Amino acid sequence: MMLNAFKTRLPGPEDALPGRSEPILADPGRHTVLDTPLAGPYPEHLEVADFALGCFWGAERRFWQTEGVWTTLVGYQGGITPNPTYEEVCSGLTGHTETVRVVFDPSRVSYAELLKVFWESHDPTQGFRQGNDVGTQYRSAIHTHSPEQQQAAEESRAAYQKVLESSGYDTITTELLPAADRPFYVAELYHQQYLDKNPAGYCGLGGTGLSCPIGVAKAG
């Protein structure tokens, strides 16, 4: 799509597309790599984390390759339009991010370790873009599911900011907000595990090369 004003600023309620009352994908099925259900409800011992770090194709792969992750799925979160389509999100008129939902076993991988994957897999200082991908849907965001996740995310952001500043990077622009008021809308089936279905497909994901001093890194 051609660039428009809403590629570089978020829409207000008066600008946002109306969306729809029904999900665009009612039953996403099973994970093509992990062979686990994509949609909940999930087993009680598992926890949920939501991360937006640019194009969700490469981001999802980064998390499904992480030990202790039970399932991953991609969708749209943090905007206004209910049950948006991919084309609507790309228009900039929904306000959503491209988000990866990570369902994980906390006895095998901690939330802090997932935060490490998140920070090191992209450049969180770029605002409404990630590399050559420009638009509000590519902005960096963490949507938390508990006060404990919120605190851990805030602490990790502060720690990584110091690392980035020491290497000449700007201020982190990552949104850090509760997921409770920001519904996660499952994306179309062809987006789910896209890089497993299309191994040579596009992946614009790229980090800064700087280690985040949390989780495994902190222990070292």
UniProtKB/TrEMBL annotation:
Annotated active site residues, numbered on this chain, are C55
- Which EC number(s) are documented for this chain? 1.8.4.11
Q: Name one GO molecular function term.
A: peptide-methionine (S)-S-oxide reductase activity
From the UniProt record, list the reaction(s) this protein catalyses.
[thioredoxin]-disulfide + L-methionine + H2O = L-methionine (S)-S-oxide + [thioredoxin]-dithiol; L-methionyl-[protein] + [thioredoxin]-disulfide + H2O = L-methionyl-(S)-S-oxide-[protein] + [thioredoxin]-dithiol
**Coiled-coil region(s) at which residues?**
none
Ranges of residues in domain Peptide methionine sulphoxide reductase MsrA: 50-203
Highest taxon, organism lineage:
Bacteria
Cross-referenced SUPFAM superfamilies = Peptide methionine sulfoxide reductase (SSF55068)
Query: Which InterPro entries has this protein been placed in?
Result: Met_Sox_Rdtase_MsrA_dom (IPR002569), Met_Sox_Rdtase_MsrA_sf (IPR036509), MsrA_MetSO_reductase (IPR050162)
**Record keywords, A-Z:** Oxidoreductase
PANTHER family per record: MITOCHONDRIAL PEPTIDE METHIONINE SULFOXIDE REDUCTASE
User: Could you tell me what this protein does?
Assistant: Has an important function as a repair enzyme for proteins that have been inactivated by oxidation. Catalyzes the reversible oxidation-reduction of methionine sulfoxide in proteins to methionine.
Family affiliation: Belongs to the MsrA Met sulfoxide reductase family.
> What is the official name of this protein in its record?
Peptide methionine sulfoxide reductase MsrA
Q: Which organism encodes this protein?
A: Streptomyces carpaticus
